[in-house]
């Protein structure tokens, strides 16, 4: 009888354990994990480091919407976990094995209402749908019958009262709470008329060891668990003010607000827009305000979806580091943290100068340091440009023996 289980003979994916360990600790979202695994399957699964992979391919493999795939890819690129370059048919995507250069995930900080081991007392109303997310410490059993709780090991509590009349107290020693708008637990007492104190048996607990905050309410059932990272004001005007404060070219504000109001972004889209603004502001074009489009144009054309390159690729960084090591002290170091699009293009062109010897650049800069008198006011860009490279290799500036 034929074994129908997966067999290595039918193909397998080789991945270094050190890299896998780094990915495990990278704190990715579910969508980012799915997209990352799809990229690994399309690259390492075929013994490639990178490949031309379209968003449609990733959407088909993961079952995610193309828009969600795009957001996940951008998030992974922003954290430098994925490398994305312009390819022949789409984008050339691969995993950045230099995990030391990955950008750590940032978290929003919520002020704590109470810390330490002392007891916490919280006054809530009887008829209030209540949300309590409690730390890993097991909550004491409560006396109130008919109460059902869902406990998640995060330190968050949110209360949405319906009536301000009568209430009960939750007194649980050793519980640390912080207040944030979250809904994960519904408390429905059988007797809403009189207040009571929860302190012992009668509570049924469901413990879910999650590390992300999922929002699912009666009025807003979610198809997917949405990982909240920021909470923005409910007022559309206040949301626009946040956008406007970050947009570098402040002209035609009325038109910009009209376009923003028409878009009416939710928390997820607004966060995506603000991240895109930060990415665009790092491009060389946006460093000059006259080249920044009007905000209304940027919004109406959904420019936050533009595929922008704002970081050097690992190969480009290696070339710059090689120059700095050999000639930086003499000609001036190139700043690795400042991305210049023209410089990146020059490096890519420079790497094609010797097809038969693709590693020639590793020897080039040390050789220049030992044998070439570089002309005044010439530096990195001149040495890797076609004209400068031709003159240097042709011996025009080679030192003569004394």
From TrEMBL:
It comes from Paraburkholderia silviterrae. NCBIfam families: phage_O_Nterm. Residues 7-102 form the Bacteriophage lambda Replication protein O N-terminal domain. GO terms for biological process: DNA replication. Residues 147-166, 175-194, 203-217 have a biased composition (Low complexity). Residues 138-229 are annotated as: Disordered. This is Bacteriophage lambda Replication protein O N-terminal domain-containing protein. Pfam families: Phage_rep_O (PF04492). InterPro entries: Phage_lambda_VrpO_N, WH-like_DNA-bd_sf.
């Amino acid at each position: 009888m034929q074994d129908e289980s997966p067999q290595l003979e039918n193909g397998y994916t080789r991945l270094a354990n050190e890299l896998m360990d780094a990915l495990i600790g990278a704190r990715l979202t579910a969508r980012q994990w799915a997209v990352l695994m799809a990229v690994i399957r399309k690259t390492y699964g075929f013994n490639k480091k990178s490949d031309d992979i379209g968003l449609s391919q990733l959407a088909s493999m993961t079952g995610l919407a193309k828009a969600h795939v795009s957001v996940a890819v951008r998030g992974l690129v922003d954290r430098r976990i994925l490398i994305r370059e312009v390819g022949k048919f789409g984008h050339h995507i691969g995993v950045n094995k230099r995990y030391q250069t990955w950008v750590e995930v940032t978290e929003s900080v919520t002020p704590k209402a109470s810390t330490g081991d002392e007891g916490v007392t919280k006054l809530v109303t009887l008829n209030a749908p209540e949300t309590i997310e409690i730390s890993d410490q097991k909550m004491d059993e409560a006396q109130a019958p008919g109460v059902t709780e869902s406990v998640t090991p995060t330190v968050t509590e949110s209360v949405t009262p319906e009536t301000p009349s009568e209430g009960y107290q939750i007194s649980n020693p050793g519980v640390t709470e912080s207040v944030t708008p979250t809904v994960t637990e519904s408390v429905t007492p059988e007797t809403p008329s009189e207040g009571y104190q929860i302190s012992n048996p009668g509570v049924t607990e469901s413990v879910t060891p999650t590390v992300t905050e999922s929002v699912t309410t009666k009025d807003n059932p979610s198809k997917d668990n949405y990982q909240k990272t920021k909470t923005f004001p409910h007022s559309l005007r206040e949301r626009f003010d946040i956008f406007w404060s970050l947009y570098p070219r402040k002209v035609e504000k009325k038109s910009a607000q009209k376009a923003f109001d028409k878009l009416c972004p939710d928390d997820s889209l607004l966060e995506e827009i603000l991240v895109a603004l930060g990415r665009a502001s790092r491009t060389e074009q946006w460093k000059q305000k006259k080249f920044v489009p009007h905000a209304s144009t940027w919004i109406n054309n959904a420019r936050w979806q533009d595929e922008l390159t704002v970081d050097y690729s690992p190969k480009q960084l290696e070339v710059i580091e090689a120059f700095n090591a050999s000639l930086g002290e003499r000609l001036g170091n190139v700043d690795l943290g400042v991305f210049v699009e023209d410089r990146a293009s020059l490096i890519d062109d420079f790497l094609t100068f010797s097809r038969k010897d693709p590693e020639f650049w590793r020897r080039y800069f040390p050789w220049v340091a030992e044998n070439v008198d570089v002309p005044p006011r010439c530096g990195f860009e001149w040495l890797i440009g076609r004209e400068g490279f031709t003159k240097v290799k042709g011996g025009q500036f080679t030192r003569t023996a004394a």
